[in-house]
């Protein structure tokens, strides 16, 4: 037995223990952007192409998280993320407003879809939080004709500290590494920013609308009161 599972377990625990190292200021800034969005009646909108969708989902509609959250569902599920122009057209159909904030998650940050979404958001004056593998992105080349990388448009960058290719464990006899880390580290960064945003709002005297688990008696009814307040925004594409 190679104990691959134990190696992965230990690697993830180590990643999570150190994910905030050197990033407290960035996490605090992301939390402030989120808090401002909630207080101003905006929507925290999250987007991740491909497997990064998991990070986007983590902070959208989550028990214990903000009601004012929406995951952006791109119909192709990332199949066209390398094709220039798709992101620009896609953004024309989204209900993104200046009081909102946008979170885009991309390990490489090099594909046109995310870059064009970031470009459009910045033209609107929407605050942008980018979750990326900063070292990987910094040593990669853009696939967009602008030559820009996603993180170059960010108001704040959260570094998930993933390595090139994401997987972290070498296994004898296999041609590829196994055990991706970005789902765990990206989710921790975004959850941490969300929890810190709740703290900020409470310090301001604002009680934010938060989801109660639908599995708790009375939870669906509790949530629906708040969902009705924002239904015109949350149900739009």
From TrEMBL:
In the record, what terms sit under GO molecular function?
Answer: carbohydrate derivative binding; isomerase activity
SUPFAM superfamilies to which the protein is assigned, alphabetical: SIS domain
Which Gene3D superfamilies does this chain map to? Glucose-6-phosphate isomerase like protein, domain 1
The alphabetical list of record keywords is: Isomerase
User: Do the record's keywords include Signal?
Assistant: no
Q: What CDD domains does the record point to?
A: SIS_RpiR
The residues covered by the SIS domain are: 34-211
Q: Name one GO biological process term.
A: carbohydrate derivative metabolic process
Specify the domain of life of the species encoding this protein. Answer: Bacteria
Q: Cite the PANTHER family for this sequence.
A: PHOSPHOHEPTOSE ISOMERASE, SEDOHEPTULOSE 7-PHOSPHATE ISOMERASE / DNAA INITIATOR-ASSOCIATING FACTOR FOR REPLICATION INITIATION
What protein am I looking at? Sugar isomerase domain-containing protein
In its UniProt entry, the species of origin is given as Copranaerobaculum intestinale
């Amino acid at each position: 037995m190679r104990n691959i599972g134990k190696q992965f377990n230990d690697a993830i625990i180590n990643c999570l223990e150190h994910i905030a190292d050197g990033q407290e200021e960035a996490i605090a800034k992301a939390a402030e952007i989120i808090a401002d969005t909630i207080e101003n009646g905006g929507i925290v909108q999250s987007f991740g192409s491909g497997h990064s969708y998991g990070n986007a989902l983590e902070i959208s509609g989550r028990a214990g998280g903000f009601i004012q959250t929406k995951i952006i569902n791109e119909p192709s599920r990332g199949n066209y993320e390398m094709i220039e122009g798709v992101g620009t057209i896609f953004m024309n159909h989204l209900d993104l407003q200046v009081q909102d904030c946008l979170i885009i998650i991309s390990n490489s940050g090099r594909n046109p879809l995310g870059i064009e979404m970031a470009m459009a958001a910045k033209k609107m004056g929407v605050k942008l939080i980018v979750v990326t593998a900063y070292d990987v992105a910094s040593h990669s080349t853009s696939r967009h004709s602008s030559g820009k990388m996603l993180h170059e448009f960010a108001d704040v960058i959260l570094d998930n500290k993933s390595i090139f290719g994401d997987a972290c464990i070498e296994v004898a006899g296999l041609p590829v590494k196994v055990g991706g880390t970005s789902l765990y580290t990206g989710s921790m960064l975004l959850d941490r920013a969300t929890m810190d945003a709740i703290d900020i709002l409470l310090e301001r005297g604002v009680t934010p609308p938060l989801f109660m688990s639908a599995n708790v008696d009375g939870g669906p009814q509790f949530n629906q009161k708040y969902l009705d307040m924002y239904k015109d925004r949350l149900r739009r594409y």
